[in-house]
């Protein structure tokens, strides 16, 4: 944790970068860490809190063990991404943005990932699964259960 | 001198060296006695441009027939600027904004009154889309957040989330640790949406969920301010300690007393 | 090549350039593997690793080399492998290459010159197999000035960029052009901002230079202003900025250094979406290598020019592509656009003169300096000069990145380059300009692609996203999709955007659910036009565009949804029903097995039935039925 903090010079323009590193490391921004950042940069707590809730990259609650992204870019949308998202909601019992009660899965619809030729695209734990379909998604999910 | 034409009236304005420090259309209009409605504007704070109610139509001779809508609170005047504060385009825009606000805060008499001025008594837009209002009648004008930032300097409250989910709150939606309960936010709120409650010895501010003890006047015993405010002001004005422990009425009496002791006494106030 | 000595003069640079050129023109075969994000996701790195293994195993390293490259643009056909300089062939273009194909590529093609037919691209109309890259219809009709080098250089190694002439424009500027001269050249070229608005770049630089004044650019790094690269490419379906940063980061960097010299500033930023980690990585490497060579930092190439760049990542906010929101984000604040009417060239980042330009705009600068303004302005139309990179995606055969001269028609792009609509389906519309743009119907397909023509049609050039839609796309749903996007991304500051788009979205959603009412279309138009006129920033000003253009050109679809409660494209779930065509059903029971809702009944070999009340219209039965026996109406 100290390493992450020390990586950045304490100038305001590094606030976002530091928060991103903390998010990546801990899977979310805890209240404690948000306070630490405010203190380290000498800025009001409300400012860091505002930033943490404004940007989609940040989560104030821990994310699941496996993070599922359904690309909601236009190309994927046109190729049927909403159906896949709906199917995942059915299978996992959570809406996009949510995490399953057992903390195993977080489902998110994300903005275009720029791999449009592979649409509809589902990314699980950073691994790309292209040309996904409603039929194939259940099987794919099984691999992570 | 800059010559500005507002609603047919020519107004002369002293030019500034930089375009960014020139007077705004709103300021010039005010000095010419022309009324433009505003909600998120306050003369003591930086213009914000969020409510869009103060939109006016501007054009310049070189633009020929072309014109555009700008917010008068933030647009700095230029020489030969032509402004229309109540053209058809402007009125249409204002009505639209008011109709949207009426849908957002249907119970607000401030908005109802403003809307009535423009002939709007009801809205075609659904009010059911509003999330459970954490602060009833809030139109997200930001005056509370801005005054706490720019003037009070405590930044106790801020905007959280974004878009349709935007809200004003203290960090983590928990009671603020830095709110002075000075009430500046309640004072500037155009909607009366922020509540200050003084109950016996406690002051509560709704928006920051903060409670503070009230301070009693050393002389007459009436509660006159909140403890955090008193402490901050006393720290800043060390030499006025004695006076700051009195309520406004007693303070005035004391000051007059001291003044009546003659010119030399003034130095010791 | 290991050269970490900082170049202290232009002549030292020229010596290095000559060394790089000779190093990279060795007479050996080069197998370049596209490792852009798309191809990497399909296994390109494995292909590259296997190639290297195989070459080592067979001791071919003196005659054959591999090259890790960025995106080649023909994403539909990845992973791509292009073999150059093999005796007897111009080049060989292999597509959809798998690691298992590598052994054969080496033993057959590299060693004996035999072409592997099954890895070649087959022209869908002539049915001919095409061997070399230039002959592919996809590439033949493009003019790949900015993008063409992607397939020929390793983006993580500056020597490749220098070998193809990189940084010679910078050298030319530093030795023979005053800042005023550069401004004149950029103005003369007619270059317009490639991020969306299309503002003349030369004029922007000129205003900023004026604001910066003539203060000398001394050795220390306190700055008089800033240059910023906007790499927050947020339009869904657009990924050209990413591919340019991944595949040729130095082209952008060189442009920014020239910009800094011209405008007279010492610090620059690049603001990149954090969803682009490879772009961030490659640009970081480029910065580091440029610094090592004295092309960035203090006293560049031994001149008075000192300039450096910092990378700032975005954090998931589309609105941060708007210039004042982007600056707020760099300054460590919430990405809220500001209401200030003062231009950024006067008071921008940290209230200092700032030039903000898009990735493609910066990359165009070295080209213009090297080849001249006249050359650049000879390409394109009267008011839109040069080339533009588009991401051609959606219902199109050849999905990928396409660079064409301005003025080419939409029809040429979609059919000659894009290869038309897959499955023989009918073209319906093409969406340009992302969520700020509009949908263009078939009758306007002969429109030239340039700033003015697209704007006049109700759309806009935007950052170059081009999403093709066919008869199976519901235009009302498309409008709803884009509005849901802008609503989600709205910062929420101003009343019209926050509240207005919320109500528009509600009306559109109702229409797609069969709850549309008489007057809804007119109301959408009214709200849309008002939001356009009254919103604070470009996000709000343009959010209604998709809805307004679809109403303009596809009003009948709206009316069908509202009056007949029918979705002509059979997309809106509440307005369609799935049923089995009894004569076609052979009772194979497959749909029964696959249906997640157990909404299909039937016994083996007998026609099956879908239970309406249980059917959630997921479409699985339609996808799996081999008899085409599922009907959607």
Whole-number tally of structural domains of chain C: 5
* Percentage of residues in strands of chain B: 15-25%
Number of helices of chain B: 9
* Low-confidence parts of chain B: none
Q: Could you give the distance between the termini of chain C? A: 64 Å
Largest interface: A-C, 47 and 59 residues
Give the spatial strand order of the biggest sheet of chain C.
12-11-15-13-14
> Helicity level of chain B, as a percent range?
25-40%
Dominant shape of chain B: globular
Supply the CATH class of the largest domain in chain C: Alpha Beta
User: Could you say what the CATH topology of the largest domain in chain C is called?
Assistant: Rossmann fold
Amount of helix of chain C: 25-40%
Give the averaged pLDDT of chain B, no decimals: 92
So how many helices of chain C?
Answer: 24
Oligomer: heterotrimer
- Examine the secondary-structure arrangement and name the CATH architecture of the largest domain in chain C: 3-Layer(aba) Sandwich
Number of strands of chain C: 19
Low-confidence region ranges of chain C: none
Mean pLDDT reading of chain C: 92
Radius of gyration of chain B: 23 Å
Which SSEs are present, and which pair or pack?
The complex is a heterotrimer of chains A (145), B (269) and C (633).
Chain A: H1 2-6, H2 15-26, H3 31-41, H4 45-54, E1 66-71, H5 74-78, H6 81-92, E2 105-110, E3 122-124, E4 127-129, H7 134-142
Parallel strand pairs in A: 1-2
Antiparallel strand pairs in A: 1-3, 3-4
Chain B: E1 2-6, E2 9-13, H1 25-31, E3 55-59, E4 68-71, E5 82-84, H2 88-104, H3 109-117, H4 143-150, E6 158-160, E7 167-169, H5 184-188, E8 196-199, E9 202-205, E10 210-216, E11 223-226, H6 227-236, H7 241-244, H8 248-259, H9 263-266
Parallel strand pairs in B: 1-5
Antiparallel strand pairs in B: 1-2, 3-4, 3-5, 6-7, 8-9, 9-10, 10-11
Helix pairs in contact in B: 2-3
Chain C: H1 10-24, E1 29-34, H2 37-41, H3 44-57, E2 64-69, E3 81-84, E4 91-94, H4 102-112, E5 121-122, E6 129-130, H5 137-140, H6 158-163, H7 168-176, H8 179-189, H9 201-212, E7 226-231, H10 240-247, H11 249-263, E8 267-272, H12 277-292, E9 308-313, H13 323-330, E10 354-358, H14 359-371, H15 373-377, E11 387-394, E12 400-405, H16 410-417, E13 427-432, E14 438-441, H17 451-456, E15 465-470, H18 475-489, H19 495-512, H20 520-534, H21 538-542, H22 545-564, E16 578-580, H23 590-594, E17 600-601, E18 609-610, H24 620-624, E19 630-632
Parallel strand pairs in C: 1-2, 7-8, 7-10, 8-9, 11-15
Antiparallel strand pairs in C: 1-3, 3-4, 5-6, 11-12, 13-14, 13-15, 16-19, 17-18
